[in-house]
Records
---
Amino acid sequence: MTLLSVRGLSVEFRSGVRAVDGLDLELDAGAVLGVVGESGSGKSVTSLAVMGLLPDARVTGEIRFAGQDLTGLGQRALRRIRGNRIAMIFQDPLSCLNPYYPVGFQIAEAYRAHRRAGRREAHHVAVRMLDEVGIPEPDRRARAYPHEFSGGMRQRVMIAMALCLEPDLLIADEPTTALDVTVQAQILDLLQGLRERSGTAIMLITHDMGVIAGLADDVVVMYRGRAVERGAVREVFYRPRDAYTKGLLACVPRVDGALPLRLPTLQAPVEEQASLETPEVTP
Amino acid sequence: MNAPLLEVQDLVKRFPVRHGLTRRLAGYVTAVDGVSLRVEPGETLGVVGESGCGKSTVARLITRLIEPTSGTIRVAGRELHKLDEAAIRTVRRDLQMIFQDPFSSLNPRKTVRQILTAPFRYQGLAPDEPVEHLLERVGLRPEHAARYPHEFSGGQAQRIGIARALALRPKLVVCDEPVSALDVSVQAQILNLLKDLQDEYRLAYVFIAHDLGAVRQISTRIVVMYLGTVVEAADRDALFAHAAHPYTHALLSAVPLPDPDAERARERIVLRGDLPSPLNPPTGCPFRTRCPKAAEICTAERPALRLIAPGQEVACHFPEPLTVEGTP
């Protein structure tokens, strides 16, 4: 069953920059869709558009979640879905946490925003979630403030917060980019386990082909706001058709296999073009 | 007899930890705890490890941005921490650094030309080649000299950082996570550039990174750090073919492979728990609290780094046997 269906999504900012340009996506309930691309490819903007978090941009196209078109919804209706049925974890956990409140309180607050629960019950949920994302001594750490956590720990707190309401869809925007590899392995295991246990679908946004290879069922490769390739993960990895996909797969230095003398490079990486040329303005 | 380009012996760095309004001394964090390294001209020493393992502190110690608690650092035979201000300035010509964040390491108010001539100004030298040549060497265009850092992309800004490090024609460049802030396709370009420059100028690198793929691509020799200590040091191919320390194994097996079948089929060693607090490190082996092989002796006795094969040293009471398939 299709949980999320995006048709012809375009996002244009006031500056005239079109970050997403006619994107189609489809995500089944309980599945993992990998969205891969480099900076400026529009992958994060896509996730913000799905969440209705781009009030200043012109968002056109259709975003259907569980049969309901999100583009037409007002803020009140969106708020009932956000955090509750669609949760999101961002790249930078520190900017997502309030420095003035203990993390346990913040998780409990997110929980109480959508569930009828007392403080005590919500606090227990928070402690259980902190434990589940691998924070040692969760009881004690729930009372600690964001600045007392390492970068990796803060991202775990964010994941605990996102998962406490058992959403249908988790949008994970570079969830492990800030984490150490051994911690990343734990978090990827955790996401995999969550998906198996609760059937939460995951839209996994990342630049890391390895993360996609391990977790995703389907993958969309984005370049300059468009999907240049899409398909089942094995199809895309073993028989890539698009030159950009091929380049992206080849240029990653690997820990296994033969060691190339030089890494193959892409002809026109997104980032290099970006700032010195005049930005492409779409009328 | 030629001294090695860089020789680090039993390096220790403790940072005081202070608490409360009175800044009462609460204890010390041992960020680097007895590290020894050696780098020969033209080679790349990769330093890998996770956050908090002390790899960046090592970088700052080597470049004398901070002073060690004990231990020695010798650059071309000269002991770095015995030099006075004037002498250290001459050594710095041979010893440069590239930083992780290309933007915060470039002054936003200065043009690229000013940034690239600054090393000569501080050294009291006349630039021996035009800025334009320097830019071309790192793959930028001559007209970029008049621009400001914000006009560049991350990859280009990192190239400026590299050009600045190379301006004085150093012998050793300490690179602290030079590619981790960059997109994968840009990473590949920067890694290739570093390699080309190394071949051209016979540079030596200390390449500090958490990305094992990048470290493998560029290093001739690799040390793996954990909680301030070196747990394994080996030639590049030996390390990736038969890692001997359980932590190295876990680290290698944690790197996701961009290959769905291989990635899903392999046995991953997932380390339980987290890095112990460096304020209160474990007795004995620093890795024992997360080690799948930990035994009594690991609590009692800290294993010393010992040679187990040519070019491969490991600090473990129970290193992996070399004959068994050790490939990740």
---
Amino acid sequence: MVSKGHPRATELWAQWKPTLMTNFPGLTDDQIEGIILYINDAAAPKAAVTGTNATETSGSGDNSSTMWMFLGLALILGFLSFALMRIIDNLANINRVQQGEQPVRKTVSQMVTSKGFIAFMVFAVTLIFGYKTVDNATQMGRQQNYQPTQPIAFSHKIHAGDNKIDCQYCHDSARRSKHSSIPGTNTCMNCHSAVKVGTQTGTSEITKIFASIGFDPISNKYLDGYDGFSEKQIEEVYKKWIGQAYMADKGLNSLDDNGRAIVEDQWDGVVKALKNDSNGKIQGPIEWVRIHNLPDHVYFNHSQHVAVAGLACQQCHGPVETMPEVYQYSTLGMGWCINCHRETKVKFAENAYYDQYERYHEELKSGKRDAVTVAEIGGLECQKCHY
Amino acid sequence: MGEFMAKYPNTRVITYDPVSAAALLAANEQSFGQRAIPSYHFDQADVIVSFNADFLGTWISPVEYARAYAKRRKITDKKMDNMSRHYQVESHMSLTGSNADNRILVKPSEQGAAICALYNEVAALTGAGSIGGPKVNDKAAASMKKVARELVNAKGKSLVVSASNNVAEQVIVNKINDLLGNINTTVDFGTLSYQRQGDERDMVRLIEEMKSGQVAIAIVWGANPAYELPNAVAFKEAFAKVNTRVSFSGVMDETTSLCTHAAPAHHSLESWGDVEPKEGHLSMIQPTIAPLFDTRQAELSLLMWADSPNLNLEDEQPYYQYLKSYWASDLFGRQNKYSTPTAFWDMSVHDGVFEMPASGRTVSFNGNVSSEGVSKPSGSAVEISCFETVNIGNGQYAHNPWLQEMPDPVNRSVWGNYLAIPVEWDGVNNINGWQNLTDGDHVDVTIGGKTLNCAVVRGFGQMPGTVSIALGQGREAGGCGVGYGVNVNPWLGMNGNLIQYYAGDVQVSDKPTSTDKNVPCVQHHHTMGVAVGKEEDGKPYFVDEHAIGYKGFAGALTDRSIIFQAHVNELPELGERMEKFHEEAGHLNQQTLYPDRSEFFGTGLHWGMYVDLNSCIGCGACQVACVSENNVPVVGKNEVARHHEMTWLRIDRYFYGDLENPKVVYQPMMCQHCETAPCENVCPVNATNHSMEGLNQMAYNRCIGTRYCANNCPYKVRRFNWLDYTTADLWPANEERVFHVSEDDKPFYADNLVRMVLNPDVTVRSRGVIEKCSFCVQRIQEGKLTAKKETRALADNDVRTACQTACPTGAITFGNLNNPDSEVNQKRNNAGAFAYQVLEEINTRPGVKYSAKIHNSNEELNS
């Protein structure tokens, strides 16, 4: 900018030469405008008041505004300390000149290698590394937003969103047991023995279900002795089906080139989805990829949360009904669990189990409290989850 | 079996019991015409005399007997005038002997003489004739006189049992019971027990036949004769002459390794089956898991070899169908409770057992008593008795590491068998072992020309002139028990082809051949306190250096409030003493800095336990149950010797009374879940803290392993993972994908087969953390959830700890202390002042209460 003769730039360069201004390639023009606006504002006499306001807004939990506040503060402080350094330096020089000595100008390299600067840098680096280490250690093993590719492109959006199938129709063990298990292929077949062609994927995905369980969609029968089928036999059954479906869709009497390619392609997809290292054949269960996984030292029981507390699945799993491909919505970190336990109110009146908490019931009756949270019946205690 | 024999009519089935009751069966046949074992009603007996029968630990049906026995030992009211009296006639202290009110010491070879002596005394009092017989030692003879008088006074309500494997002696015992009117009352032939049916005399015949080449095929099922028999050498020689040798064993044990074919059968947890341990009690064996390996159920193999027409191999589970149709065709007709075979089968599977009505059979004594055939005292200077232990039995459990690491209740040693030698008190401070031997010395013991090198342990209550050692160790093949202890079966003699579990003419080397300082004896581990300067000479007194403790208690210090005991006649005095103690402790505990937390603990649930020391027989079932429930690692012999055993629940053994022949109190000791726990205050990272339900919680992932808590625990119940016992910390165990570990190279806890032993609800702890009893918190949470889901109040039965469910005598009760009607509260209240907290005066406010131990010894016998 200086070489291009930008007026403000040349002015600054003349003033601060040889110090170079830090380059912020990450900042957009808007942001820079914002910072400048902020700096101007902060440099004004009412800086203290502005600061207070900034702290208050940070309390609202808006992350980006907090970051901007810190960045702004850092800039101001950096600017101030730089200015102070210059002033001290200048004063010292004036002093020297008054005493008849030559003014000593420190070069940049002198400044950078000075004790104070190195100490500051060591301090800053230690601080940042320390913070980052702790932060990353906390994040270790967490996989928020984990979104693996599943063997079948199963869309929760179509099933739970568009068709409004209840979560617990398929994940029925959630209300009864520790695990909310992945449904078996039988559950799929409840509907897919009738729905044989998908609205979006056609035969490519649903054929995988049939091939896994041994259902012949043409004759609408389960194949006898399917376990003993060779891959060739299976291939024959389902290639025929894919081809037939294609022909029905296009209104053809025989397969065209495109159709043949689609049959081959879809069959390859079936083989890839169902055959793997642990199960060397097409028959047998579909190996879905587990997304939500807690460490071994955490005990979690779905039925406690679903059946007793009556939580909606979405509370932890997010808007699954809008996800074409499921990802882990929550952090599943301990702080996240604890927060919910702090805030959630227990269904105290409805469940006779809670009658034993006589003191709380009296307090509820006398109006001393209006609810009991999970935390108040031991929901924050270590052995609620760790044993 | 019947179908197999029909197909191959030359088949003979030979059964033997590794620890034989053949003489008892033969005697019952002679006396009562029933070759079976009766039901013994220990709960109906006022006076029990046991001749070396370890009926609480190993004899015939110990769990059944212990449950009945304990019914008459509990504190039911302040008077306890219903307590039974138990005499044990033996040479070494067995588990049963340690619970007896009086032990009458006789040498192993004097058992017959002792039985004759008792018979003669009882006969004199009831007007029957004397049978003479060999003489027992004078002290025992004098005791028998007094015992006989008591037995006669309790006519019809007494019980005499004997483990003797001598037909004549067992007949005399039957006659004693007959004279005392016990037949059909406490000795009940109405419901026969089929738990012993074998006869080793058949085995002797079989060995002869095999030797002469008369046997072409031998099938071994559920037996290990190459190890278990005293004449195993002869068996092996003869067995080699059989052309086809088949074993059904699931492990490569001593016998299987001699076989030509191994046809491994399912484990019992993989099998269907039915058994009738007692007459009319049909019990189901149900699989809990699909077979893990390529095995086949032994019954199915036999049926297939027999080409059974009733077997349909097309069925998915042929033996299951076979069993079901047998129940429908045969057993269904024998009952009238259910009207259809399906209902009969389904309900029996559901209940696990089907009980037919009792036969109502009565018998009368119909035999000849004679002292002829009674074994004569050997007269040798040193005799040995060989006994089963409650954990390893006769060796069938030697390959189970949980049981190997469970200390023997009496000598408290693990991983092996130890020669118990008599002790002698020097009258001051020391208990010296016989021949100045001490724990950890190894000696050469020679019997009948066979020498074995045994480790020594001082055996309190061991009769002078006798030694004893456990059976079941010194295994040569089959699993983890190989290489521990010595096999003493070859020492056992035969009398009329019946195995005798003792021997005379024992030569023990004068000097120890070597000494092992690392004795895996847990008696001196985790002791609860050390008294200093209490002795008359003012010398410090350390428990670890002297096996005998203060004031006659052994193992740990007992001038502190750990154990209370009294004779049943002194109950009022004990009550006063304990009330005063509670008062003093309460006064001390009021001077506390702790804030009042009664509101915190008073809300909702508060877990607590009650352990009835009168019911506790020290069998150790709770300890193994705890290990199994809570994924407690097995650490091995060397680690135990270094005090590193990990058990969350230990059974402390305390001696009292006579120093050389003491009485015993067993005290299960687990985390006491103190309300003001000393461990919690010293944890720098708050890894252990208290829940509002009264649990002392332990968060393993928070623990950094300072061990301050373990040091500060007055009960010494916290355990530290010194090493990575579970291999849970190894990188390859955790990062299989990164390290490309092959299935064979996996560390053992990463191996999926080994992992099946784990309880999935309990964390496997890694190295460097403290762990301890959690009151089975996983069961608590599960029970609470069940109640919540059913929207009802929590019931006592919802939460039962592992130790509680395993206890055969109901000594352990667990429940909610905030519920005044809970079983635990009722029992604690019933016991009144006799219920106490261990170290009550130090204001730890434990959640566990114990009862004082009451005994009912005949003081005349001690004089």
